[in-house]
Write a structure and sequence with these properties.
The chain is mostly beta strands and about 90 residues long. It is built from two helices and seven strands, in the order βββαββββα. It comes from Tigheibacillus halophilus.
Length: about 90
């Protein structure tokens, strides 16, 4: 939990949510990068590894085969050709 503008906001660790194993070169830092999201009156802080930047994207559906993937709403192809999954932030707020 963190204090954000006088409100207590729960933290959601995306590594734990998506079950991403920790690599050897990753260290536990005292400082965390957090993205604050809001759904109605509820708020949460998403703990991320790093901020890459901001881009305009075209969201593509994952298709009929991947309809039940938790908290992923689609994907996009970045300018460098890499595929990036899009997180459904509403699914992460309880």
């Amino acid at each position: 939990m963190i204090d954000f503008r006088g409100k207590v906001v729960p933290l959601v660790f995306l590594k734990d949510t998506f079950q991403i194993p920790q690599t050897e070169n990753q260290e536990d830092d005292d400082l965390l990068s957090v993205v604050i999201i809001k759904k109605g009156e509820k708020m949460a802080g998403l703990v991320v590894d790093a901020f890459i930047g901001q881009q305009e994207i075209v969201l593509k559906s994952l298709g009929d085969y991947l309809t039940d993937v938790f908290a992923i709403s689609g994907a996009t192809i970045l300018g460098n050709g890499h595929v990036a999954l899009i997180i459904d932030s509403n699914a992460l707020i309880k």
